[in-house]
Amino acid sequence: xxxxxxxxxxxxxxxxxxxxxxxxxxxxxxxxxxxxxxxxxxxxxxxxxxxxxxxxxxxxxxxxxxxxxxxxxxxxxxxxxxxxxxxxxxxxxxxxxxxxxxxxxxxxxxxxxxxxxxxxxxxxxxxxxxxxxxxxxxxxxxxxxxxxxxxxxxxxxxxxxxxxxxxxxxxxxxxxxxxxxxxxxxxxxxxxxxxxxxxxxxxxxxxxxxxxxxxxxxxxxxxxxxxxxxxxxxxxxxxxxxxxxxxxxxxxxxxxxxxxxxxxxxxxxxxxxxxxxxxxxxxxxxxxxxxxxxxxxxxxxxxxxxxxxxxxxxxxxxxxxxxxxxxxxxxxxxxxxxxxxxxxxxxxxxxxxxxxxxxxxxxxxxxxxxxxxxxxxxxxxxxxxxxxxxxxxxxxxxxxxxxxxxxxxxxxxxxxxxxxxxxxxxxxxxxxxxxxxxxxxxxxxxxxxxxxxxxxxxxxxxxxxxxxxxxxxxxxxxxxxxxxxxxxxxxxxxxxxxxxxxx
Length: 503
Hints:
27% of the residues lie in helices and 25% in strands. The protein is built from 11 helices and 23 strands.
């Protein structure tokens, strides 16, 4: 197989023309090709630039400085039956992909998830969005697929890892479009990822994976060597040889239980802030690739005394209520596959170092409870960005997409005096990069669950440093910050288990 870079197509050209371009370049017919990467070059007249993998006879004769031989690596594990009992607690991205890989290898896998399967979970979430009735066990945070199921379902990551294609191939096998493998900023959308996760779960059930949905783990039984021998749920007790802990950011009760048992947990820096919303047409006008007829994204960074940055930008998306506790307010961003809401949103967050709080969970929960107390409802707090900058409060320049409504609130009261100055300086910087960012936008919040406030420290073998056979993984353990990074962490831990089981 050959890797050929720098094949160009105009924006209006069909990708069907790639084959003729490749054959013209090689001066021969090819057997097949696949796209490895697609990017937009907008420096002059915008064009798409492709890297392709090509199957052609006698490939060695075509190798040049620009055409390289490419060898695909098969990362699928070898199956051999293993009776060791693996218990996976939490079924977000790290739980899904550790379960998938361990089932491929032949382990005896049981998955425990506090929330419901997606079809029932969606009903609970929609009831909350429409009626304000929150189910604390089945919501945006808890249930099949984890919090990423109700997001933009971005598949971008800055991590370079050989297992990225392995992950994408599994997504594609279970219903994703092929283009997620080569798009520059691939995303699935909340409506599509739900179907894909359901398909993955159904496949794992067919393969013999033992699922326990709506079954919360409430305790762990340790022996005198600090090895976890059983997990205890609200329904039963279960033996385990390996415990993979893939809890999400919001699994505070589980973290408290682990602390009570003496599991070593350390605090971690966090971030707080709000969502900003702008007309998508405004963002498109300010960004370079609006000609592509796709909603545009942005990534903003400000380096001051503290960092301020955009996070989880959702073009054509919605701001959604993301709380898992009653009488709190938490916002997050979500979008459907078509990204057609007409409104862009993104979190704007300021870093909060661990030296500024004693317990990160309590610190964040107090913000969430105070927001609810001010609103006296699940309506989010909102303000025009321009009013925030000018210490004023007027009616919003356009309605927020937040489904439960908003109440006017002066975010000048949200931050400490020092942080307030930093956030305002950051917004001025963002406005210089996207002119009109301040005048054309609104802010909705609070946003408190972008990063987990703890890390369950693990050793080089992936185990908790003081609790044998406990393998913390994913975002809720402090080892991930998005779908792909958590998927990779689940695979990283499962590979450790596979190697240990084969000794």
